[in-house]
Specification:
Layout (H helix, E strand, L loop, with lengths): L1 E3 L19 E2 L45 E2 L1 H9 L1 H9 L8 H16 L9 H18 L12 H16 L11 E10 L4 E12 L5 E7 L7 H21 L5 E6 L4 E5 L3 H24 L49
Parallel strand pairs: 1-2, 3-5, 6-7
Antiparallel strand pairs: 1-8, 4-5, 5-6, 7-8
Length: 344
């Protein structure tokens, strides 16, 4: 993964100078040309995870069958890697979580950045983005009334102002007037493991250059990842790259995380060998999830991430009592052993 915090420049993608998955500080290269497509996943890294208790317009319907079929998103896979009990409470019990103002702000900023590209190229200015903040918030509240109670009336002006400040940060890193996203806020999916598991997720923006190179862009409204958050963000990027590779036959040239708060870009350049290893890892992860579903044994894994968990009252590590395991939520299909060579 490479990082830069300067303005975006259009240049040909370069090969990764380090081993796949290594982190280095460098100037991030761009997909060549002025064509930028867009795909979105609002399931973002901790601590700005989409709260299951507050529906995200347009997403919950497509993901509603995740308890009944073998399917996995980067967020839910990340939950199980972080803490199996967290996965259970979110994906199987579906315990509602109160969304925070920070999460609501992230939803709003994502919505503005998506609709920014509906404007003519020359109209995509910081001023135009700021003018979209209030109308987009009103639209989101109309579609998901539960958002209205997250921000008090007295706090709304400051909330909207802070969203505008994050959008200002975006314009210091990319010039949207030069981009033409192919897809935005798009659901992508693929079946792996001989059709036994579906991988799916939403990508914020997908950029496709005239030569066919693909850049995946994901916006983050929290700070750039540090320590425990780094691996989760990288896992999410590889997840998207794997789906695109298997569905389009092309390994993305660049996987880009744009951290609006810190005004920092993190780029990662995968290769086929690494994605093949990652696919085995994901299949092994699903096998572990399925074994846990069969036994109902989803044990908590305490870590510093517990500080952001909304389910401490249901966690035995915090003196809570976990509810009985729901009936009918056993393994989906055959519980298989982890593939040989799969990494943990």
């Amino acid at each position: 993964m490479t990082r830069n915090d300067g303005a975006d420049t259009a240049s040909a993608p370069t090969s990764d100078t380090g081993a796949p998955g290594t982190v280095a500080v460098a100037v991030a290269a761009d997909v060549p040309g002025d064509v930028v497509p867009g795909v979105t996943v609002a399931e973002v890294a901790v601590p700005e995870l989409t709260a299951p208790g507050v529906p995200v317009p347009g997403r919950d319907t497509e993901l509603a069958d995740s308890r009944l079929r073998a399917s996995l998103s980067p967020s839910r896979a990340g939950d199980f890697k972080t803490c199996p009990l967290l996965y259970r409470l979110r994906s199987i019990d579906r315990i509602p979580e109160a969304q925070t103002p920070d999460q609501a702000r992230g939803t709003l900023v994502h919505a503005v950045l998506e609709r920014l590209f509906d404007l003519d190229a020359q109209a995509r200015t910081p001023e135009a983005a700021r003018e979209m903040v209030t109308p987009e918030w009103d639209r989101l509240v109309a579609e998901a009334p539960g958002l209205a109670g997250i921000v008090t009336e007295d706090g709304l002006p400051g909330f909207l102002t802070s969203a505008g400040e994050l959008l200002d940060g975006y314009f210091t890193m990319e010039d949207p007037q030069r981009l033409a996203p192919a897809e935005r806020e798009c659901l992508v999916s693929v079946d792996v493991d001989e059709g036994r598991l579906q991988l799916r997720g939403f990508i914020d923006r997908l950029d496709v250059a005239p030569g066919g190179e693909i850049r995946v862009v994901d916006y983050k409204t929290g700070g750039a990842p540090r320590e425990a958050f780094e691996s989760r963000a990288l896992f999410q990027l590889k997840f998207y790259a794997l789906v695109l590779w298997r569905t389009r036959g092309v390994v993305p040239s660049v996987l880009r995380l744009i951290y609006l708060k810190d005004r920092e870009i993190c780029d990662f350049r995968p290769d086929e060998e690494e994605l093949a290893r990652f696919e085995r890892t994901v299949i092994a992860l699903w096998a572990a999830i399925n074994r846990a579903r069969e036994t109902g044994d989803f044990r908590p894994t305490p870590s510093r991430l517990c500080a952001w968990c909304a389910h401490q009252a249901l966690c035995p590590e915090f003196g809570g009592t976990t509810p009985p395991y729901p009936e009918g939520m056993g393994a989906i299909g055959a519980v298989v052993a982890a593939p040989a060579g799969a990494a943990g």
